[in-house]
């Protein structure tokens, strides 16, 4: 029924288009009369590119010369034109666009009247129209560059006239390149079919001083990315995001993955200024920029997801090196005080943490507060003592949060002001606000920033030695300015609500350094922070960053997260999405980080702990009320606290499984389609995902949810993690099974044929391992698993129906086999070894003659 109604609706929409097309014929006439101001070139559509034809919806009465500039554009391909509000047909005609009388919206022709072209062999392109739809002059000349970066990836760059272009549009074994010069667009195909990889032909190209618009399409089928997993839009709906780091959104990257006919390809958009990205239901992607000298697209052709990720990562300078400590629990505290004495008082008052954790930062503002103090004051020395007594002595790692901003009243500022590295507004160093403190902002790509960093490190050493750590969190480095609110200004003719919001709570767009306005490089602020401070912190430094670009490889923390079920769901989406785009280590604060937490969030907070137990990074860091297990005991209940502690213990027991997955260069927490790339039932899944290739994890993401439905892809059997009950595709309805869950259930399934190492004890020296072995039904099938320890040791496990074999590489006595748990399709059993077996001795264990065994 409803499908039919939708169909009728679609038909009506279509009919509207036909009407519109007729009504717009005056525009077409104006266009042809050569009398309209602003039109430079009129011959543009006489050279017609047949490729374009199939994009259009054309009715039977269309004459051939109307074919190539039509308003009969499918709803899902309509790119808005001009200011969205208060449009009339007259205003719309004036800016050479189509008007939809039903919706009162103005949209671009297809192809758009706004394009660039060249009628010679030159690689510079002129604009079709003098003015943009916002009545700004368009750049007369722009350039395009195409640089193949490998057989499987290519960079396409649109830039202004400050540099000329070089076009290398060659065919490789993996893609064919075509470039059309009038109008200008590029298209890439897979070489042996006409399968499209990328086209820039379907939207306008507008390039003026403060407004650029360009668009591309990767596929008309499945599109993933832009901070989401599957982007699933219908009809008129669109997805819009602004890429411009601020409090609310500092880690969405403009990256995409596309799927069609069994193959994946991907694209990274590089742009350092404010960029608004809209995805239409057709999967057409529109880019709008307020700034810039260039927009770069980087296409990778796959054809598998793994290859796309590798091709993306190939261009990074360095890679992540994981150690098991990364997977421990990291504790930090946030708040508004920058007064060292107060921060220390609060810390002293706090109950000792009574759960297992790996690192403690004491307080996010500790560094800024310490910088505000003299290095020889009694408070500073009390700080050193506290770090020593309460963090180091109990064998925890001290991790220091460093914010980019510098307190205006500090010695550090006085000593570095003359370096000229701080952002200026109106000729003086710009003062922003961080919790009511005046702060100034260094520009980390400034020529003299190394001197600043040396002074910063000196100040740190004076205050923290001998406890200056090797772990650092570069916090709030989008960077945060709590005083700035963006307003509409004349200069930006296009400033959507989304852009206005994104350009607030961070440095004013017009603050400048070296006479360059900061908003032009805004999206690289965190990147330069990491790149410049990182090496100065020493070779062994472990760094997490709150804001990054695609080129960083360091783990990422998201900040300013309100606790809510929606944000819990979004947290999963964000981590899964980052895993696909080269950032497998993303952390979202457990139970949120802002002060909105109350005891009513208890059951959500327990669920968040359960989810975090198998997430890439486990970080508990929030404003008050704190939500570590110790604080939860008094804030919510002892019950919640004990659930949270169990989740943490569970995490520590799986730490080496995590280390093994990442050590094998695979993302840890990843969407189902990463492992089942050709099963489109998995594409939209978020509540269930894979942790490594062997664990399928499920979480309810709605309040009071007592049932979860789980999709099990055809093929393998899946064993419920705790009890070993087996499930598979055939057991459910088309693969879907339904389970009843309680708020404290961690639901996971082990894939048949796998072996998962679990650490049973907390002993730092000798670790007792339990192997969870999921055997298949088939006599000949072997289960396999691995354990990578992070100190160069690795162990391989192979199990037949009757026997386990271990082989080691660089192993030593530090890991021993204690227990073996065996899952079979119709039975489970446990073998407790009489004596621990050293894994370094490559033991074999026969399942049939063990005395302490239920097998
Ligand atoms: C739309 O136009 C009306 C009348 O011309 C005006 O009152 C209203 O403020 C305008 N709305 C916007 C959003 O510009
Ligand atoms: C647009 O629609 C209005 C009614 O909503 C109608 O009065 C008007 O004549 C239409 N304009 C054109 C150009 O068809
Ligand atoms: C680039 O374009 C601008 C404005 O269109 C013009 O003023 C400038 O001279 C051009 N520069 C070069 C190198 O052509
Ligand atoms: C590259 O492929 C395109 C079609 O995809 C074709 O038009 C073009 O001629 C090819 N170029 C070369 C040099 O073979
Ligand atoms: C791709 O280019 C090659 C030559 O480089 C050509 O033989 C082949 O036909 C092209 N494929 C398509 C689909 O145009
Ligand atoms: C810039 O500073 C001057 C004096 O220092 C002041 O008169 C002027 O109002 C300031 N302009 C802005 C836009 O703040
Ligand atoms: C910077 O831009 C803001 C608007 O966002 C404006 O109010 C302010 O005067 C500008 N400052 C200078 C020095 O241009
Ligand atoms: C999966 O693809 C098939 C055919 O390609 C299609 O019929 C089906 O609707 C798709 N399912 C989903 C969930 O997209
Ligand atoms: C473990 O298996 C992997 C491949 O699965 C292999 O590369 C590695 O060399 C093996 N290590 C040992 C110690 O056998
Ligand atoms: C095992 O080897 C690692 C280095 O590979 C070393 O750090 C550790 O102390 C050793 N453990 C034992 C028990 O020998
Ligand atoms: C267990 O069985 C295996 C092979 O069947 C045999 O080699 C081994 O000696 C037996 N071990 C014990 C303790 O009986």
Automatic annotation (TrEMBL):
It is found in: Membrane. Residues 69-110 form the P-type domain. It comes from the Eukaryota. One of its GO terms (cellular component) is membrane. InterPro entries: Gal_mutarotase_sf_dom, GH, Glyco_hydro_31_C, Glyco_hydro_31_TIM, Glyco_hydro_b, P_trefoil_dom, P_trefoil_dom_sf. This is P-type domain-containing protein. Coiled coil: none annotated. CDD domains: Trefoil. Keywords: Disulfide bond, Glycosidase, Hydrolase, Membrane, Transmembrane, Transmembrane helix. It comes from Zophobas morio. Belongs to the glycosyl hydrolase 31 family. Gene3D superfamilies: Glycosidases, glycosyl hydrolase (family 31), Golgi alpha-mannosidase II, Spasmolytic Protein, domain 1. One of its GO terms (biological process) is carbohydrate metabolic process. GO terms for molecular function: alpha-glucosidase activity; carbohydrate binding. SUPFAM superfamilies: (Trans)glycosidases, Galactose mutarotase-like, Glycosyl hydrolase domain, Trefoil. The chain crosses the membrane at residues 39-57.
């Amino acid at each position: 029924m409803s499908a039919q109604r939708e169909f009728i609706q679609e038909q009506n929409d279509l009919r509207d288009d036909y009407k519109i097309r007729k009504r717009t014929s005056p525009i077409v006439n104006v266009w042809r009369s050569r009398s309209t101001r602003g039109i430079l070139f009129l011959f543009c559509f006489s050279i017609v590119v047949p490729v374009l034809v199939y994009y259009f919806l054309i009715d039977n009465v269309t004459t051939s010369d109307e074919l190539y500039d039509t308003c009969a554009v499918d709803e899902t391909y309509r790119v808005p034109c001009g200011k969205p509000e208060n449009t009339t047909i007259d205003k719309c005609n004036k800016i050479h666009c189509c008007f939809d009388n039903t919706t009162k919206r103005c949209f671009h022709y297809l192809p758009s009247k706004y394009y660039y072209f060249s009628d010679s062999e030159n690689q510079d392109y002129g604009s079709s129209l003098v003015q943009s739809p916002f009545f700004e002059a368009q750049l007369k000349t722009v350039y395009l560059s195409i640089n193949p970066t490998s057989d499987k990836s290519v960079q396409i760059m649109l830039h202004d006239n400050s540099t000329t272009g070089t076009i290398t549009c060659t065919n490789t074994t993996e893609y064919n390149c075509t470039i059309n010069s009038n109008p200008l667009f590029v298209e890439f195909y897979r070489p042996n079919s006409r399968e499209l990889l990328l086209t820039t032909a379907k939207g306008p190209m507008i390039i003026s001083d403060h407004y650029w618009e360009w668009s591309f399409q990767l596929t008309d089928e499945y599109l993933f990315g832009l901070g989401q997993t599957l982007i699933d839009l219908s009809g008129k709906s669109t997805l819009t995001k602004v890429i411009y780091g601020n409090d609310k959104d500092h880690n969405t990257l403009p990256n995409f993955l596309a799927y069609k006919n069994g193959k994946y390809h991907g694209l990274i958009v590089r742009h350092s200024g404010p960029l608004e990205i809209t995805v239409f239901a057709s999967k057409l992607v529109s880019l709008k920029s307020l700034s810039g000298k260039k927009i770069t697209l980087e296409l990778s052709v796959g054809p598998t997801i793994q290859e796309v990720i590798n091709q993306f990562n190939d261009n990074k300078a360095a890679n992540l090196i994981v150690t098991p400590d990364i997977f421990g629990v990291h504790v930090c505290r946030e708040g508004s005080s920058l007064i060292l004495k107060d921060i220390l008082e609060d810390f002293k008052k706090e109950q000792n943490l009574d759960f297992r954790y790996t690192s403690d930062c004491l307080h996010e503002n500790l560094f800024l507060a310490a910088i505000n103090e003299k290095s020889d004051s009694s408070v500073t020395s009390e700080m050193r003592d506290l770090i020593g007594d309460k963090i180091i002595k109990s064998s925890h790692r001290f991790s220091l949060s460093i914010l980019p901003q510098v307190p205006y009243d500090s010695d550090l500022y006085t000593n570095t002001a003359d370096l000229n590295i701080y952002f200026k507004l109106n000729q003086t160093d710009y003062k922003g606000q961080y919790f009511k403190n005046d702060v100034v902002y260094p520009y980390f790509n400034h020529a003299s920033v190394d001197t600043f960093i040396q002074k910063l490190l000196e100040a740190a050493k004076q205050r923290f030695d001998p406890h200056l750590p090797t772990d650092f969190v570069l916090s709030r480095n989008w960077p945060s300015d709590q005083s700035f609110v963006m307003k509409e200004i004349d200069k930006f003719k296009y400033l959507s609500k989304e852009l206005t919001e994104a350009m607030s709570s961070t440095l004013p767009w017009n603050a400048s350094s070296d006479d360059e306005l900061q908003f032009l490089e805004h999206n690289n602020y965190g990147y330069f922070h990491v790149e410049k401070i990182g090496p100065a912190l020493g070779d062994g430094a472990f760094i997490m960053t709150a804001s990054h670009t695609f080129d960083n490889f360091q783990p990422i923390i998201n900040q300013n997260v309100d606790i809510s079920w929606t944000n819990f769901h979004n947290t999963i989406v964000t981590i899964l999405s980052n895993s696909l785009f080269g950032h497998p280590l993303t952390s979202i604060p457990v139970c949120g980080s802002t002060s909105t937490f109350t005891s009513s969030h208890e059951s959500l907070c327990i669920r968040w702990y359960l989810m975090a137990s198998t997430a890439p990074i486990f970080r508990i860091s929030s404003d008050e009320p704190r939500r570590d297990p110790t604080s939860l005991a008094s804030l919510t209940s002892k019950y919640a606290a004990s659930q949270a502690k169990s989740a943490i213990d569970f995490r520590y027991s799986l730490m080496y499984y995590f280390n093994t997955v990442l050590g094998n260069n695979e993302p840890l927490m990843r969407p189902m389609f990463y492992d089942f790339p050709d099963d489109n039932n998995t594409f939209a899944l978020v509540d269930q995902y894979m942790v490594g290739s062997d664990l399928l994890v499920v979480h309810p993401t709605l309040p009071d949810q007592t049932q979860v439905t789980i999709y099990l892809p055809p093929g393998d059997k899946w064993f419920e993690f705790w009890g070993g009950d087996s499930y598979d595709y055939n057991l459910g309805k088309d693969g879907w099974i339904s389970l009843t869950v309680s708020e404290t259930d961690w639901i996971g399934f082990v894939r048949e044929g796998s072996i998962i190492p679990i650490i049973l004890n907390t002993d730092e020296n000798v670790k007792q391992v339990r192997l969870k072995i999921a055997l298949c039904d088939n006599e000949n099938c072997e289960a396999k698993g691995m354990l990578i320890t992070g100190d160069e040791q690795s162990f391989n496990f192979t199990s037949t129906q009757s026997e386990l074999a271990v082989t080691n590489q660089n192993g030593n006595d530090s890991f021993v086999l204690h227990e073996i748990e065996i899952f079979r399709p119709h039975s489970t059993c446990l073998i407790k070894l009489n004596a621990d077996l050293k894994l370094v001795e490559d033991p074999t264990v026969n399942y049939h003659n063990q005395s302490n065994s239920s097998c």
